Amino acid sequence: MKLSIITAASENNVIGQDGGLPWRLPADLKWFRGHTIGHCIIQGRKTYESHDRPLPGRTSIVLTSSPDEVSVPDDLKPGTQVLTATSLDDAIQTAHRIGGPTDQVFIGGGSRVYADALPRVDRIYLTRVHATIEDGHAHFPEVDWSRFELTEKVDHPADEKHEHSFTFEVWDRK
Questions:
Q1: Distance from C-alpha of 62 to C-alpha of 114, rounded to nearest angstrom
Q2: DSSP helix/strand/coil, 27
Q3: Residue 88 has what DSSP assignment?
Q4: pLDDT over 90 percentage in the chain
Q5: N or C: at which end does the chain have fewer Cβ atoms within 10 angstroms?
């Protein structure tokens, strides 16, 4: 099973600010949804709670030391599931058991989860936001990019819907 990170990060690797994203980029949200729909997505409890609701059409595996404290609404949309795990290994094993339409599992944040998963991932889907965010509270970990090969790159200019320019990048482990 392929393990992939998916994230958006500023030029200085900020991924979060005040409990949410420091930008509004609708094309990035669409890209995120398009890649993760129908898949398992592993995320930390704070990242899970930063969403208004569980991500529809996906199985969210929430990493937490207190599984009973993870709130799961009763009215989940079809194809949506929320499970908990107490370690990254447990979350990956849960994703293997569930299976799915493909052999890909996504790591969706936050900082610590990305750092723990980075040595194991096969692919990184990175939206590089061309901005420097000075007061971010969450950062994407440093990556040894020499261990990865850039296999896809699509630039997107700033426009009336996107306050910053950005680039969709796909990096595969060599």
A1: 13
A2: helix
A3: H
A4: 87
A5: C
165: tokens are 């320019």
Alpha carbon dihedral 48, 54, 56, 57, in 10-degree steps, equals 70
CATH topology of domain 2-173: Dihydrofolate Reductase, subunit A (3.40.430)
Burial 7-26 (b: 16+ CB within 10 A, else e): bbbbeebbbbbeeebbbebe
How far apart are the C-alpha atoms of 168 and 93, rounded to whole Å?
29
CB 1 within 8 A of CB 96: yes
Mean pLDDT of the chain: 95
All structural domains of the chain with their residue ranges: 2-173
Q: Find, among 47, 55, 49, the residue nearest to 71 by Cα.
A: 49
Question: What is this structure's pTM?
Answer: 0.95
Q: Compute and round to an integer the Cα radius of gyration of the chain.
A: 16
